[in-house]
Design a protein that fits this description.
heterodimer, A: about 240 residues, alpha/beta, Rossmann fold, 2 domains, 6-stranded mixed β-sheet, 11 helices, B: about 290 residues, mainly alpha, ABC transporter involved in vitamin B12 uptake, BtuC, about 5% strand, globular
Chain lengths: ~240, ~290
């Protein structure tokens, strides 16, 4: 049974400002797909389109969950999450004055996830022992790295099939970025997730991605079938590797 | 008036007792105004409704006022949910909640008040219960049961709500929606449904507070307006979202009012709430327990 995500010819923006134009991006079952691009090129807007926070002016967004196709456009954010698509949002958006444990509990809002809340929480504590140590601490009082772990763990509490991650490396020290990327890969394998990740850090993202896209000025500047293609592309070399 | 330890201690004690009652009237506003940003100034009208439900049940059927309102809390909860649903569709969804929503609740306040006037008239109404009348005397301090019961019930109500919010899933969701509604949607929760539950809860607390009010003193329909300043003062002073803050602020207001009316005269005490509100906004706008 497949879990995939197809974004076809999507254009979107805020008011009269167009951010995305004619973007087509696809993540197949079990793939890890990376969206590359520096700030302000539309990665976050694309994530918002997929999760129903921004309604595209054109195009289609279709998710396949356990083999069943769902048209996501027109659904509310909570309905999309309920299908099994979780987003680790930009800025993490934790509940700052709730504890780690309470944040995780609320992560399992979906009816199907609420039934196995204890098991999911044990799993999260196993993957992130630090969160177990801090379970009674307020989320807002933790370090940036711990908050990012919590945001990832909270998204997993919903038992998603498709995981969207918006810039997991933002604000983290390089060593923490590497650890976070490792965790994402570990979780993806353990849970059989389909992952779409927006990231600026090319080298780190390239370690776990199967494929990738480069967004420039709201358009797909390059679509690569492999990480090597990405690495060798002119646009990536120019933007990230400082050559060309 | 001359100062005496006797008067002073009694003023402090009755202030604390009054503060317990204030907990009950303010807890609903802390939930809807403090946590959910809904300016429900009709809250006191629901308190009065509770008072008249207690009056009606007591005089017609001889039911204990607290028992009557405890039962009435259930339909009141569903009525509150319905009311929020209307408010959401008519104002919140369109982004017109700040001014038009305020006007809506203001209108509601008057409609309820007039309805109560038409049904029950302008006379002061009171209830009868075994705890109205007797007083506990400890040395020179006297504690009337009709004030002690509201203290116990008021504090108990806030403690139950604290437990509900921190222990239950929907309670945590109410706290979450007050902190970040978008984040709640991102975990799959609907802010509208969560706020609906919270609003229902708030109206239910107002009904119970009404029973406490009519136990404390006879009431007439327009009496509720006196509480608008008090409930908002308590919520702001307590730090908007903090329920322990609501308890502390209620006590501060109760004791201040009681001291003022003992030593300066009762006509000064209504000014206390607005005075405290202004001082809070000037000195510490986030309130005692605010962040």
């Amino acid at each position: 049974m497949g879990n995939s995500l197809s974004i076809e010819n999507v254009s979107a923006g805020y008011g009269s400002v167009t951010v995305l134009s004619d973007v087509s991006v696809h993540a197949g079952d079990g793939e890890t797909v990376v969206l590359l691009g520096t700030n302000g090129n539309g990665k976050t807007t694309l994530m918002r389109c997929i999760t129903g926070q921004v309604v595209p002016s054109r195009g289609t967004i279709v998710a396949e969950i356990d083999g069943e196709r769902h048209n996501l456009i027109g659904l509310s954010t909570e309905e999309i999450v309920d299908l099994g698509i979780s987003l680790v949002p930009e800025g993490r958006r934790l509940f700052p004055r709730l504890t780690v444990e309470e944040n995780l509990t609320l992560g399992a809002y979906r009816q199907s996830a609420r039934e196995r809340i204890a098991a999911s929480m044990d799993f999260c504590f196993e993957v992130f022992p630090r969160l177990k140590e801090r379970r009674t601490q307020l989320a807002g009082s933790m370090s940036g790295g711990e908050q990012q772990m919590l945001a990832l763990a909270r998204a997993l509490m919903a038992s998603p099939k498709i995981l969207l991650i918006d810039e997991p490396s933002v604000g983290l020290a390089p060593i923490l970025v590497a650890r976070m990327i490792d965790k994402i890969a570990e979780l993806k394998t353990a849970l059989g997730l389909t992952v779409m990740m927006a990231e600026q850090n090319f080298e780190q993202a390239a370690r776990i991605a199967n494929r990738g896209y480069v967004l420039v000025h709201g358009q797909v500047a390059f679509a690569a079938d492999s990480v090597d293609d990405l690495r060798n592309s002119d646009v990536v070399r120019r933007l990230y590797l400082g050559v060309g | 008036m001359t100062f005496s330890l006797d008067l002073f201690s009694n003023a402090i004690v009755s202030g604390i007792l009054l503060g317990g009652f204030y907990c009950a009237i303010a807890v609903g506003i802390t939930i809807v105004f403090g946590m959910l940003d809904i300016v429900n100034i009709a809250h006191p009208a629901f308190i009065m409704t509770g008072g008249f439900i207690a009056y009606f049940a007591n005089t017609q059927f001889g039911i204990d006022p607290l028992a009557a309102c405890a039962i009435a809390m259930i339909p009141a909860y569903y009525l509150g949910r319905l009311l929020y649903r209307f408010y959401n569709v008519a104002f919140e969804k369109r982004g017109e909640e700040s001014l038009q929503g305020l006007a809506f609740f203001f209108g509601l306040l008057f409609i309820i008040e007039v309805a109560l006037l038409l049904i029950f008239g302008v006379d002061y109404r009171f209830v009868e219960a075994p705890y109205i009348g007797p007083t506990i005397e400890i040395g020179f301090i006297s504690i009337p049961w009709r004030l002690l019961i509201p203290l116990i019930v008021g504090l108990g109500l806030v403690l139950v709500i604290i437990a509900f919010l921190s222990r239950t899933f929907i309670g945590k969701a109410i706290l979450a929606v007050s902190q970040d509604p978008l984040a709640l949607r991102l975990v799959g929760g609907s802010p509208v449904k969560v706020k609906e539950v919270a609003f229902g809860l708030s109206i239910a607390t107002a009904i119970l507070a009404g029973a406490l009010l009519i136990i404390i003193q006879p009431i007439e329909p327009s009496f509720g307006r006196d509480f608008i300043g008090r409930v908002f003062c308590i919520t702001v002073l307590g730090g908007m979202t903090s329920l322990p803050g609501t308890i502390v602020a209620s006590m501060i207001l109760g004791v201040s009012e009681s001291l003022t009316s003992t030593f300066l005269g009762p006509s000064w005490s209504p000014a206390i709430a607005f005075g405290l509100l202004l001082i809070t906004l000037a000195v510490r706008p986030v309130g005692i327990f605010g962040r």
